[in-house]
Please model this.
Amino acid sequence: SPRRGGNTDMLLDELMKGAVGKGAEVKTIVLCDLNFTTCVHCDACLKKGICKYKDDMQGIYQDFEEADVIVLASPIQFTGVTANMKAMIDRFQSRWVRKYVLKIPPLGDRRVRKGYFISVGGRKVPDLFAPALIMIKTFFRILDISYAGELLFSGVDEKGAIAKDPDALRQAFQAGEKLVEAS
Model:
């Protein structure tokens, strides 16, 4: 989230603590601290599955290739993930090319990876998370990452409000433990 220290960050921090407690090595990437351009659909990646732009996305590509579990965390903004996360997802077009055009593994190998999604949204409406879930699940499927679940909390808007939910942080911690135990 662009709002540092907010509800999404608190949940992600707890998930990471749970994972570390079970022996995992973790890394958090804060997209709003990085400098990368958006995908311009120039098709340069069609030849080798490599994006022509050399920016902070290079580190993200490498982190995805090395990871066993990838947790995406984003608040809901206008029914979707943040602009930064959407821009990152779009820049994985080169990995889509690898899989569907060049017929090679999108992340460099065929080992099993798991994906998880954490999100909060200010409104309490049915299907608040549905558009974001479609995008996240599709993104993971394109990258050959199996979807391992999500933590979704609606009616959470004010910074730090998630701490008022007595069960939310515990659920996040336990999710981190389970993601490691199941690996």
